[in-house]
Amino acid sequence: MRADNRIEIRPSLLQKLHRIHRQITDLSGQIERCPRQIKAGEHMVTEGSKAKEAAQGNHKDAVLACDAKQLQLRSREDKIKDLDAKLKTAASNREFSLLKEQIAADKQANEVLSDEILEGLEYIDELAAVVQAASEELERLEKEQADRVTEMEQREAELRSELDRVTEELRSTEKDIPSGALDDYRRITEARGEEALAPVDEDSCGGCYQILTTQLIDRLRMSLLIRCPNCNAFLYSPENRQLG
Ligand SMILES: [Zn+2]
Fold first, then answer.
1. What is the distance in A from the centroid of ligand 1 to the CA of 239?
2. Of 10, 42, 169, 225, whose CB is crowded by the most CB atoms within 10 A?
3. Global pTM value
4. How many CB atoms lie within 10 A of CB 80?
5. pLDDT digit string (tens) for 88-147?
6. How far does residue 188's CA lie from ligand 1's centre (Å)?
7. Domains, the chain, ranges and CATH?
8. Separation of 96 CA from ligand 1 center, angstroms?
9. How far is the CA of 242 from the centre of ligand 1 (A)?
10. 188: which strand partners?
11. Residue 181 half-sphere exposure, CB side, CA atoms within 13 Å?
């Protein structure tokens, strides 16, 4: 657009176009966030599921370790019974006292093992509580996620229909753009969306803060189309605001 191009354009039209472009940016951003929130929720469910599996694994390991100790305890008790039987048929005092010593040692070992088994059972109870808590947490996360998916899908549908409505409003508003400005408008809005337009703030571009010449401000006051010499945005005077 050359400087001697004198395209008249109503500030209210540019204000409205900018407002619609901002709405479109906002709605598009909100629409993008819907699937992202669903994905974040899926991640939380996956983490909850991993936590439950880990808790179940710990519980299972503890049960197996305790079972092994109980097996060991029973087999040593059987051995003690055998030794007791042998006591009665001991051929000598020496054999008798060796058997006695062996029985005492095995009994002592079993006492230690019994204590360990009791501790193991307590530990299993604790781990079972952890599994229970992890299961409840996973259930909560899954329910929350199901609700989230429903809510986000509904929200996305609402936002899309709102976006359709606003896009339609944009199309009909764009019909008022003077034909001489239309190509530039298309090019810059396609490239930059809402940043294609900017209000003038005091004496500078509201988009990039470039200070504007009084000549440009004068043209703006005459409702002539001006572009920011720095960021190329279509400039307009903000609502309810007298310039200069
Ligand atoms: Zn600018």
1. 18
2. 225
3. 0.77
4. 18
5. 999 999 999 999 999 999 999 999 999 999 999 999 999 999 999 999 999 999 999 999
6. 13
7. 29-176 (1.10.287.1700)
8. 106
9. 19
10. none
11. 26
To the nearest 10°, the Cα dihedral for 122, 127, 129, 130? Answer: 150
Contacts of residue 231, defined as CB under 8 A and 6 or more positions apart, other chains included, come to 195, 198, 205, 207, 208, 210
How far away, in angstroms, is 211 Cα from ligand 1 center? 9
CA dihedral (76, 78, 80, 82) positive or negative: negative
Closest CA to 41 of 157, 138, 141, 140: 141
3-state helix, strand, coil in the chain (%, to 5): 75, 5, 20
Note the Cα 90 to chain centre separation in Å.
75
Ligand 1 centroid–CA 213 distance in Å is: 12
Q: How confident is the model at residue 18 (pLDDT cuts 50, 70, 90)?
A: very high
Cα–ligand 1 centroid distance for 119 (angstroms)? 74
pLDDT, one tens digit per residue, over 157-212 is 999 999 999 999 999 999 999 999 999 999 999 999 999 999 999 899 999 999 99
